[in-house]
Design goal:
The complex is a heterodimer.
Chain A (H helix, E strand, L loop, with lengths): L7 H9 L5 H19 L2 E4 L1 H17 L10 E5 L26 H8 L3 E6 L33 H8 L5 E6 L5 H7 L2 E4 L19 E6 L2 H11 L29 E5 L9 H16 L3 E5 L7 H16 L18 H12 L2 H14 L5 H24 L2 E5 L15 H6 L5 H6 L3 E8 L5 E8 L4 H14 L10
Parallel strand pairs in A: 2-3, 2-4, 7-8, 7-9
Antiparallel strand pairs in A: 1-3, 4-6, 5-6, 5-10, 9-11, 10-11
Helix pairs in contact in A: 2-3, 5-6, 7-15, 9-11, 9-12
Chain B lengths: L10 E12 L38 H13 L3 E2 L2 E2 L2 E4 L9 E4 L6 E9 L11 E13 L3 E3 L8 E3 L6 E7 L6 H17 L12 E11 L9 E4 L4 H20 L7 E6 L4 E7 L9 E2 L6 E2 L2 H9 L5 H12 L3 H7 L3 H13 L3 H19 L10 H12 L5 H14 L3 H7 L8 H14 L1 H8 L6 H11 L6 H14 L1
Helix pairs in contact in B: 1-4, 2-3, 5-6, 6-8, 7-9, 9-10, 12-14, 12-15, 14-15
Classes of the chains: A alpha/beta, B alpha+beta.
Chain lengths: 486, 492
Amino acid sequence: MNLAQFTIHELHEQLKNRKTTSGELTRSVLQRIEAVESRIHAFTTVTAELALAQAEAADRWLRSGRPVHPLTGIPIALKDNLCTKGVRTTCASRILENFVPPYDATVVGRLKESGAVFIGKTNMDEFAMGSSTENSAWGLTANPWDLNRIPGGSSGGSAAAVAADACIAALGSDTGGSIRQPAAMCGVVGLKPTYGRVSRYGLVAFASSLDQIGPLTKDVTDCAILMKSISGSDSFDSTSADVPVENYTGLLNRDLSGLQIGIPKEYFIDGMDPEVLHAVKEAVRTMEKLGAKTREVLLPHTEYAIATYYILATAEASSNLARYDGVKYGSRAKPTKDLLEMYMKTRQAGFGPEVKRRIMLGTYALSSGYYDAYYRKAQCVRTLIKNDFDEAFKQVDVIVTPTAPSAAFKIGEKTKDPLQMYLSDIFTISVNIVGIPAVSMPCGFTQTGLPIGLQIMGRPFAEATVLNAAYAYEQATEWRKKKPNL
Amino acid sequence: MPTQTTTPTQYEMVVGLEVHAQLKTASKIFCGCSTKFGAAPNTQTCPICLGMPGVLPVLNRRVLEMAVKTGLALHCQISPYSRFSRKNYFYPDLPKGYQISQYELPLCEHGYLEVALPAGQAGVNGQIKRIGIHRAHMEEDAGKNLHEGLEAASHVDLNRAGVPLLEIVSEPDIRSVDEAVAYLKTLRDILVYLDVCDGNMEEGSLRCEPNLSLRPVGQKEFGTRVELKNINSFRFVQKAMEYELRRQEKVLREGGRIVQETRLWNTEKEITVVMRGKEEAHDYRYFPEPDLVPLIIPQELIEEVRKTLPELPDSKRERFVREYGIPVYDAEVLTTSKDLAHYFEACVEVYPQPKTVSNWIMTELLRELKNSGQEIADGPIPPDRLAGLLKMIDNGTISGKIAKTVFEEMYRTGRPPEEIVKERGLVQISDEGAIETLIDEVLQAHPDERESYRQGKSQLLGFFVGQVMKRSQGKANPGKVNELLKRKLGET
């Protein structure tokens, strides 16, 4: 078995016991990238030199006999909207084509301290706006399970790289499902943490009140390891929460007795893919066998989630993306006759169509005369949706739903119809609106061999509960052992 | 039917002032960069105040404390729950494309400021007027575009971007240019008293934007207002408003209409010119800043800050009137600056005649300070020296008139009064023999006047006193001169 196929915790054992070295592991991952990248295009930048240097440092550390972090020497991929000091960070946008940040995102700094190896920056929908990674200025990413299909988005590059063993694990970001939906499409584990659980400092903002960074991994244990490393309050992010970080890995066990699972009927809708429905129902039955109790819960405002999201997210985005004006960094259109023309041409040439669409939607929603009808009303509905979840979590510990209404769709299938594309986030969006944690993990395959995702949501800061439910289910099934045939 | 009146309409001015005060913190409002003025362009910047991708603001606690302190001093309600908003617009000196400010739910609201109106304005010297404070909120400053000396290019200096400001908005309670200037000066004094702002208009640490409209006297509704910008001194505040008052009055008298617009003060031409009209007004698309959590201000914090409040000009003024029995006007003048008030009290401490001290400070000292461009804090005349001088008048060593000369020299040379009086031989002549000699000389020199006096022209006494004083070079004790003259003239 190739080293690149192992998980973090398996490799950690091998590294600790000197069965292998980080250098060997990193070279093996780089070889794997070389072998598959032309077909999946998961990366925007591969940082081979940096990775080999970090691996060497990790090996020195490992040889020194000092205490070793579970991530020491492990090759990790980073979504290209996480700022990396000295490494190009493009957000898959022309406007940041040559942007090299002079600082690390807080999560990047934390991974560096743990001795992780950075293998590269992964492809994404431009500024994380999309559900298929088709909106990247650098070309699309293919799903390792079927190269004619999308990997999901916007963290499609991270999900595809993990699924294809082109990295051991990856970080993504999730604003409306951008970790969980691609995790589902690519058959990997992806967690969107509680809002405030992980510092957003250095994550290029899409929608500040919804964005969270989280892990994409090969199994739940790896997800717990990464979560433990990146979580915790940060003096550089006022919205990061001062809530103690639990020992996610140590709390994992296979027992679900006493766990109350809620099944929201609003998430089992007409027109849903029957294979997805079947797989999720089977998963719930498995969890019941492990001791969990299920009951129906009501989330009556679910139908307004997408509308609410597309007002709040685009409003915030229209403001967050104002800084890309050609004045200070990034690309600038030339020549231009005056300031206004510089702004307009720079942004015309720098942003792709989906980003422009969302800037226009958001600008409109915030305009005087429309603010009350759109933005303020959306904030009110946000509260109603949150109340739904608060009520539900009085009765249950976790809520289980499909991650997406269908398995991965074909490349180009929804690019002509933005609304159809937006609907692929229908089950993931509420989690961001409410700010709770949710994991997506494989729960089966379609007859054509495409992975199906199961979503488990929890109370705010109950990552341990969510991870444990996921772990118990994972250990009771074999889905994680299936690999795409690349 | 009442006949059409031919008297021209009298207009009344309605003014509200927006003041931006730079808070005197060492570092910027949302990052750790220095706020020092005058550094080389872009040397006081970091990824946060440069608005780089992915960075986040973190509120400087000192800014909040200073804002609360100012709010309390302006008798505002401090909102227990307030928040920041984004004000969105594009300009090269605004790195993020939005300014973090406060919009809905500002920190301070519903306050007031009491100002003493200048003499003649409200008829009475030292009348106090209360001007409402609509709100005061925290925000970040923008940078500065540089065009000078650059051909076909503009540069941007972001040292100032992120410097903390407190925007203080008055109610439209101001009715004249003098009131506006008095408000602005009083506000500046308070900010300086509180040590939250250095009050320097030229360096931009205090900026003032008047909103000005006219209405016929007696009309309740406000007229259309015009906002004035680009005013960087007290003198220009006055000039710009006076110009705008004349301009609007002329438009109205000619039957025209005032257009709602923003006008820029042109310092060279001393006129205001249109910057943008209502149609071109920005839609700032304010919305709550999602990168900062709402501010919950606990009552304990407010009380903690309240304890640090110094005695403010208005309460100090009241205390001066009460404690020292000086007129309101004197108290107002003496409390315009913390240093001056302190000086007054230090003088009264060693020379417990408040009104005399007040008179000397308000006339002699303030004049000398003004002429020399010095501040009271420069300490030109220490309190014990002034007391020394005043005591010399009391014990008859020198006359009040001579004392003024001595004062000028004390100010100029920094020497003690006793030394000056001694050296220049200014000691008052109280010796009756010496004075009598002088009187005899005068009477001999003016036989005609003496004759007239004898025939009943008693008002000539003043003439003789003057002559004797002149002959003594001002040193003769005037009381004694009077007394002896009467006796001598009566004798003959």
